[in-house]
Amino acid sequence: VPQGLFDYIDGGAEDEITMAENEHAFRAVAFRPRAGQRVESPRLNTTVLGTPVSLPVLLAPCGLIQTMHPDGALGVIRAAQKSGTIPVLSTFSGIPPESVASQPGPRWLQLYAVDRHMAKDLIDRAAASHFDALVITADSPTMGKRERDIRHTSISAGPISLSTALRMAPQVLLKPRWTARTLRTTISTLTTATLPGRPHGLRPDSATTTATAPPLPRPSEDSETPLAGNASPPLVSPFTWEDIAWIRDLWSGPLLVKGILTGEDAVSSLDAGADAVIVSNHGGRQLESAPATLRVLPEVVNAVGTRGEVLVDGGIRRGGDVVKALALGARAVLIGRPYLFALCAAGESGVERILEILRADMARTMVLLGCRSVADLNPTWLQ
Ligand code: GLV
């Protein structure tokens, strides 16, 4: 793939401290194994919000997957389903929800919205296209500063300007196979909104505005009259707790809030009607110096108690990392970069392969630990 697309996947915000910390946090945790157990086939299956999965590793919502390989988003969904897990389609995956409506098996939709008009449109379409659950991303009121993207001009969904095309020309010319494949692929944005970071300001729809709760603001509407030299970034998807409660009333299926890093925010998510939270710092792509997700997982698990489920993503690179997250109370994890690299390299079968690698590594870790089932994992399996 062109350098810009590789960096979109591989990179993070600013100095990539949080991105690196996510992985370090897993490395810093050691197991506390039990000898003498003879575990033959450890059970890796569980349920996530009532949906059975054969492996507690879900595919995180990721933008632009349609451009990464001709198998695209549909290939990712098929691979997840063949592997017995749940794919989460991003608002900006590059295909509309309708295009997977006839696909069997569970799937979730991730939601970004610049205003309630866009939110309602996507929620209605998610329901009509048989998505099982909705994932609200709460960590992206604006986009993080990804300097690799600035340097190499990441590919965006939506119209590519002439200057972007010219800046990208050398990278694209170096990757003729990708270019030929991608020119045959249709990339569409889900709504009239553009990729986060480039909002063009949807008009608020008065029909969806209620007297009791104000709508998500238009980019710029929320701010005071700009001061000279005002450096405020554009608001992209500024969900408030009131917006999440409003979405709860519109969506009858399971609702998750992604991007939670404190016990207080986990409780606010549940109070707004969420069934689960995803502990996430967006793979270190948003707030630089946000904490590593594994380090805050116990705080969130403790705050949620039995009121909901807790999932976690960020830095999971090995089956053993999945085991560590589950031992600290996660119901399941999500992976992003590992399956995107697999998708770029080998399409749908690459995504299946990465899930099989994680499954085999998880099973080996469980046998070596002496633990029979993911249901038995708890903090006593860690130092
Ligand atoms: C979108 O969510 C991104 O991280 O690029």
Short recap of the structure:
This protein has an eight-stranded parallel beta sheet with strand order 3-10-9-8-7-6-5-4. A two-stranded antiparallel ribbon has the order 1-2.
What would your notes on this structure say?
By secondary structure, the protein is α/β, with parallel strands linked by helices. It is 37% helix and 10% strand. It has helices at residues 3-10, 17-27, 72-82, 116-128, 147-152, 162-173, 176-183, 241-250, 263-271, 293-304, 319-327, 337-369, and strands at residues 46-48, 51-53, 57-59, 88-89, 108-111, 133-137, 255-260, 276-279, 309-313, 332-335. An eight-stranded parallel β-sheet has the order 3-10-9-8-7-6-5-4. A hairpin with a 2-residue loop joins β1 (46-48) and β2 (51-53). The longest helix is centred in the C-terminal third of the chain and has 33 residues, at 337-369. The chain starts with a helix and ends in a 14-residue tail after the last helix. Residues 189-214 and 218-226 have low confidence and may be disordered. The structure holds glyoxylic acid (GLV).
Q: What distance separates the N and C termini?
A: 41 Å
Gyration radius, rounded: 20 Å
Question: Could you give a short account of the major beta sheet?
Answer: 8 strands, parallel
What spatial order of strands do you see in the largest sheet? 3-10-9-8-7-6-5-4
Count of helical segments? 12
- The helicity comes to 25-40%
Which percent range describes the beta-strand content? Answer: 5-15%
List all distinct small molecules, including ions and cofactors, that are bound in this structure: glyoxylic acid
Low-confidence stretches: 189-214, 218-226
Q: Structural class, from helix and strand content?
A: alpha/beta
Q: What is the arithmetic mean of pLDDT? A: 88
* Strand tally: 10
The shape is: globular
Give, in order, the helices and strands.
HHEEEHEEHEHHHHEHEHEHEH
